[in-house]
Amino acid sequence: MTLNNPAYLDIVIYRGITLQPIVITVTDSNSNPVNLTGWQVAWGTNTFSGLASITNPSAGQITIQAGRSLTQSLPVGEKPWDAILLSNGGVAMGPFIYGVVTVKETLSPMFP
């Protein structure tokens, strides 16, 4: 995913089920990883946020994930989402990735 060329990614989350890690590598126009040391990432919809974090700064990696207890509280439905970066120099960039997140109920009974 190139920093100045937003990527598109749809995500499906089932309530009460762990969203396995989705690892995104931020690259520059030459396909080199952007060093995200000291940077911040903001990920969100208009109703929930906070599923992304910078997990390997020197490799430019951001991970989107959510545990079972978090997904259990998400509202069912489709929401547009995006993510922006704040550089260590205070410059906001993005959205660098966007898409639709769909939260669904499972049909199987949940475990306690």
Instruction: Assign the structural class, choosing from mainly alpha, mainly beta, alpha/beta, alpha+beta, or little secondary structure.
Output: mainly beta
**Percentage of helical residues?**
under 10%
What is the CATH architecture assignment?
Sandwich
CATH superfamily: Immunoglobulins
Question: Secondary-structure blueprint of this entry?
Answer:
Elements: E1 7-8, E2 11-14, E3 19-25, E4 40-44, E5 52-56, E6 61-66, H1 68-72, E7 77-86, E8 92-104
Parallel strand pairs: 1-8, 2-8
Antiparallel strand pairs: 3-6, 4-7, 5-6, 7-8
Summarize the entry for a quick read.
Helix content is 4%, strand content 46%. With 112 residues, the chain is mostly beta strands.
How would you sum up this structure, described in words?
This protein is mainly β and 112 residues long. It has one domain: Immunoglobulin-like (Sandwich). The chain contains one helix and eight strands; from the N terminus they run E-E-E-E-E-E-H-E-E. It has one helix spanning 68-72, and strands at residues 7-8, 11-14, 19-25, 40-44, 52-56, 61-66, 77-86, 92-104. The mean pLDDT is 92.
